[in-house]
Automatic annotation (TrEMBL), chain A:
Chain's role: Is involved in L-lactate degradation and allows cells to grow with lactate as the sole carbon source. Has probably a role as an electron transporter during oxidation of L-lactate.
Species annotation: Geobacillus thermocatenulatus
Protein name, UniProt field: Lactate utilization protein B
Gene: lutB
Keyword Secreted: no
Keywords, sorted A to Z: 4Fe-4S, Electron transport, Iron, Iron-sulfur, Metal-binding, Repeat, Transport
TrEMBL record, chain B:
Pfam family, one: LUD_dom
Protein name per UniProt: Lactate utilization protein C
Protein family according to the UniProt entry: Belongs to the LutC/YkgG family.
Function, as annotated: Is involved in L-lactate degradation and allows cells to grow with lactate as the sole carbon source.
Annotated source species: Geobacillus thermocatenulatus
GO biological process, one term: lactate metabolic process
Length: 476, 240
């Protein structure tokens, strides 16, 4: 699965997804329940703003000294007998992993959930040399056996599927004969995957946090799949985005505490595993060989720019889970494995504006994402920066936004023109207004107004109203 | 230990430094004093008894059976819990604490006499240990550090304690000496960090285990027991 998951125009994808009632209900339910759970654990913890400030400081310091910490990490991995490969591009990473697989004559490879291996599109590379690649995270497994259905959420990839659809896939592909009860479905996956863990030649994982001081990698799961992926096969390959690193165990601990609370509302997930090098001499399990692949793939181009804070991300999806736009259009509309506000900022940076110019507009700029972010990434401000670049430098803004952005741009430059822009807006939207509500909006508003009406720009601007009010005019 | 290889590092780090607009920084960076330390305030001043109450309450949330006992009663409590999980086969690490806590007779004589197979992890047996773990109904291990806040047992791998003990058996029992209980992950991380500062090697695998395995990947319904154990119990030994 490459980073780009769907073709076709953005608004067409949005329209299709708005018809998907199950998906929309599932997303709404996830957001509502997740919101309550997340706030519950945050409140129980206390001092949340201090935690956020600490996490932000850690991430900023690490990024500012990234070369130092990657140096330290790689030295410590090598000291423990592990091999480190620095890959500037997806191709370099894939080539290296392919060479390891060929050298090991690997037939079966088990994987635990990893966004970066999706991003570099690793699986087809391994399948092309005859390896069977098995995803072991339950959500990823479901998507893989359903002819590689793309993920729709960075933490819960199969969120868009209901249990009947999953049962049908299991029946069709795995000879499953039982019900759509999630427990029975999960037990079946357990049986199937047990054999795979025990017979795999290579285990591949992502990396939540590498620890520079010890050359360790930290894996966070609830299922325990990453533990079996790393305990049983003879060779372990871990692929990490180059920014997924902390100085010491102490910072790892802080960020894991933030990650599990923000992602799933848990104090810790069932399994947090810290692995250092291959198995120790005399151990009877764990990998005999360990490879760490550190991937740039466009990340260094973000360093030193106004978008650098996006590299603070710990992939918790708290921003996704509070986003009102994601709630309506779902993950597939974004056309990237990275969806929601984080995806809307990151996808254009890693994949370019040609493919992702609409994403920065898939936001109401309500700032719920920024407020939810445990490492204080100013997500909505970065979305505005994207819009500015798209309009000013690239000239690629979707037509409807061009108008609005023009007003915004002029507005920042000149106050008479700002007044013109806001005066002009009501007449621009006039054809779509009924009783003061926009019911059939153009462009981005069209999707939004399928589900709700959008308040029309007032004919009377706040400024005019305030002036009138001071003169004793109409109250609103 | 043979040193591993490092490839393409120089150019990679050079690019990062360039983007950051400075020369490569490859040594002499120290961690700043962080401006906030909220992690140390959690359960600050709690006694060991207070922490046990926190642990017990958390066990309800993580679907984990919580049993308190004394070292004199431990063998009986363990025997009952294994029976409640359906009996053997049992797999355990080769850990001197089993003898210290009076469990040798149970492991070496009583259970085998009752046809409850006990496999004691033995690195010399290699792959046979994994087969035994796969067939085991119950895995049992001692918690090295226990985190009250999250209900987590911390386990350091060693030759005599393989990783598979905690993951392949159908059910899992952790023996928790009361003295191992600390407020949260902060204390465990600090201990490990200190060891590294002193030049000690961290074990190749450190597990932070919080209850049985679970997943909410199907319609966000919680399914307890996916790839790892389907049930878990903590037996807290209150006088150790």
């Amino acid at each position: 699965m490459p980073m780009k998951i769907e073709n076709g125009p953005f608004w067409k994808r949005v329209e299709e997804n708005l018809q998907n009632d199950f998906m929309r209900e599932a997303v709404a339910g996830m957001q509502d329940r997740g919101y309550v759970r997340r706030l519950g654990v945050i409140e129980e913890l206390g001092h949340w703003e201090e935690w956020r400030s600490l996490a932000e400081q850690i991430r900023k310091h690490t990024l500012e000294n990234l070369d130092y910490y990657l140096m330290q990490l790689s030295e410590n991995v090598a000291k423990r007998g592990g091999h480190v490969f620095f890959a500037q591009t997806a191709e370099e990473a894939n080539d290296y992993i392919r060479r390891v697989a060929l050298e090991k004559q690997a037939k079966k490879i088990v994987k635990s959930k990893s966004m970066v291996t999706e991003e570099i599109n690793l699986n087809p590379v391994l399948e092309a040399i005859g390896c069977q690649v098995v995803e072991t995270d339950l959500g990823e497994y479901i998507l893989q056996i359903d002819d590689h259905d793309p993920p729709s959420h960075i933490v819960g990839p199969a969120l868009h599927k209901n249990k009947e659809q999953i049962r049908d896939v299991f029946q069709r592909k795995l000879g499953y004969t039982k019900s759509s009860d999630p427990v029975e479905l999960a037990r079946h996956a357990r049986e199937m995957l047990r054999r795979d863990y025990l017979t795999a030649d290579i285990g591949i994982t992502g990396c939540n946090f590498a620890i520079a001081e010890s050359g360790s990698i930290t894996l966070v799961t609830n299922e325990g799949n990453a533990d079996l992926v790393t305990a049983l096969p003879k060779t372990q390959i871990t692929v990490m985005g180059m920014e997924r690193i902390v100085p010491t165990f102490e910072e790892m601990e802080v960020l894991v505490s933030m990650l599990t609370r923000s992602a799933v509302g848990q104090k810790l997930t069932s399994y947090i595993t810290v692995l250092t090098g291959p198995r120790d001499e005399g151990d009877a399990d764990g990998p005999e060989e360990f490879h760490l692949v550190i991937v740039d793939n466009g990340r260094s181009s973000i360093l030193g720019t106004e978008f650098q804070p996006i590299l603070q991300c710990i992939r918790c999806a708290a921003c996704v889970n509070v986003c009102p736009v994601y709630r309506h259009i779902g993950g597939h509309s974004y056309g990237s494995i990275y969806s929601g506000p984080i995806g809307a900022v990151l996808s254009p940076l890693l994949g370019g504006y040609d493919d992702y110019k609409e994403l920065p507009y898939a936001s109401s700029l309500c700032a719920a994402c920024t407020e939810a972010c445990p490492v204080k990434i100013p997500l909505h401000e970065l979305l505005i920066k994207h819009r500015q670049i798209i309009v000013e430098r690239e000239g690629k803004a979707p037509v409807a936004e061009k108008l609005a952005m023009k007003a915004f741009r002029l507005g920042t430059a000149s106050s008479p023109l700002y007044r013109f822009g806001t005066k002009f807006a009501p007449s621009a939207f006039a054809p779509f207004v009924e009783d003061g509500r926009i019911t059939k909006g153009p462009g981005p508003l069209k999707a939004w107004t399928e589900s709700r009406e959008f308040p029309a720009p007032s004919k009377e601007r706040f400024r005019d109203w305030f002036r009138d009010r001071q003169k004793g005019g109409n109250p609103l | 230990m043979t040193r591993g290889t490092i490839q393409n590092r120089d150019a990679f780090l050079q690019t990062i430094a360039q983007r950051l607009g400075r020369n490569p920084r490859l040594s002499d960076v120290s961690r700043p004093q962080w401006g906030y330390q909220p992690q140390w305030t959690v359960f600050d001043g709690y006694s060991q008894d207070d922490l046990l109450k926190v642990l017990q309450k958390q066990c309800e949330l993580i679907h984990t059976d919580y049993i308190e006992t004394t070292s004199a009663e431990l063998a009986g409590a363990l025997r009952r819990q294994v029976a409640a999980y359906g009996g053997g086969p049992v797999i355990v690490p080769d850990d001197p604490r089993f003898a210290e806590y009076g469990l040798s007779a149970l492991l070496r004589d009583e259970w085998p006499a009752e046809q409850t197979t006990v496999h004691i992890w033995n690195p010399a047996l290699g792959r046979q240990n994994i087969d035994a773990a796969e067939q085991a109904n119950v895995g049992i291990a001692f918690s090295d550090i226990t985190l009250a806040e999250s209900g987590t047992v911390v386990l350091f791998s060693r030759n005599e304690q393989g990783r598979a003990i905690h993951f392949l058996p159908k059910t899992y029992i952790a023996i928790v000496p009361k003295s191992t209980v600390v407020p949260r992950m902060t204390q465990a991380a600090a201990v490990i960090h200190e060891q590294i500062e002193k030049g000690e090697l961290v074990p190749s695998c450190i597990n932070f285990i919080t209850g049985p395995s679970n997943s909410a990947d199907i319609e966000m319904n919680l399914v307890v027991g996916v790839h790892g154990p389907m049930k878990a119990a903590y037996i807290v030994v209150t006088d150790r």
